[in-house]
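Continuing the series of single-chain predictions for the mutant panel. This is the parent chain; the variants come on the following pages.
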Amino acid sequence: MGQIQDVFAKAAKAELWAGNLITGRSDSGKKLENRTPIDNSLIGYIADGEAADIDAAVAVARNSFNSGEWSDLSPAERKAVMQRWAKLMEDNIEELAALDCIDAGKPISECLNTDLPATIETFHWYAEAADKVFGKVAPTGSSALGLVIEEAIGVVGVVLPWNFPAQMFAWKVAPALITGNSVVVKPAELTSLSAYRLVELAYEAGVPKGALSLVCGLGEKVGEALGRHMDVDMVSFTGSTEVGRYFLKYAAESNLKEIVLECGGKSPQVVFADADLDAAVPHILNAAFWNMSENCSCGSRLIVDASIKDALLEKVKAGIASWKLGDPRDEDVVIGPMVEGPHFEKVKSFIAITEQEGGKLVQGGKIHSDLGSGWYIEPTIFDNVTADMTLFQQEVFGPILAVTTFTSDEEAVVLANNSSYGLAASLYTESLKRAQRVSRAIRAGTVSINGFSEGDITTPFGGFKQSGFGGRDKGLEALQQYVQTKTIWYVQD
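Parent structure:
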């Protein structure tokens, strides 16, 4: 655990740094304070990037792409570099986990045992996928030969969220690079540390510096500049639906670059009367409160058959009692702080709003202002939440669960679909027929049966409706957003 303690020690001295990594361009010296949500103390600084940095990074990326130093390598050659990169991540897993813990307030046990292993697996998986995706030969007559091939799209902008810093870096950068693109990464200003370190390891592994750049800073300065840039071919964005709309606007007002959006969610958990409640409860809790509910696929709406609601709630309340809240550097802690003060205030406001609208507080609701930053909110459950209430309709991104009842399968589906979002859903039933029928009826990109899951790296992840569109993260499907289709037609006279 030496690497972990080294990171925490540097944080205590405010020595952690995430700067721009743009070959041939040094940092301007402008910087932003980086404070940890654990106790709001200064842990270091990040570069205060600007539009000129994006211009430089895009120019480098374009030159790299055109030169072929990465794009013209064989899939096997890119695969070897990616595998070396993944090995370096394995060697530095404790450091990377500690960076995400101190930067985002994520529990260290979760970073070390879940997030970073998933990050590394993503790079290994896409490395192996590099030489296993083929083009096609069109069915022509003898007078022609038609080849349908997939080519790298060119310069790719990647805009990352703050809730899973390393893992979201992997979901986007790995498939973008393995297909031969040059990539410019804009990490969230709240959580830039692991991205900076991952890019450093990429260079050590042999990724050309021109093929991968990092520009840190504020969304309104750096993110907008990337979205509007005339020489960026596509942007893959994960974040709020509100900000996702901006990237569509930026594309429309610039070069009509492709935009892939993975945005918000208000995912239902539907529990039918025949469900195995004891087996369901751990999954229900994970869906609702994992990662402090700072998760776009968070199962924040518990839609339960009225006949079993009371029994289920008692089991849920008993289960959540073992979830320890506190300093995320403690290995036993499961619930850490909200990521920043403004977000904490937003989440906290939902408690008062729901009480005003008639929701019944049945668990939690306490703000632990005595802990560190004071941005610690207990897992909170409201009963008697109706479909017209704010808590039912709006994404909270914090540990507040809405409980709503139904009396028929049809009503359950209507309630589940009563949302502008459609990212994920889960349902619990012992009936195979019901599971199949309801899973098809729910409008969501991922539907889990008798458990909470986002699938694994082999399955695509993305949403319906205002949860996003344009492509999918994970799986072979993710590769499609980073390539474009070309037909080569040989005419045989």
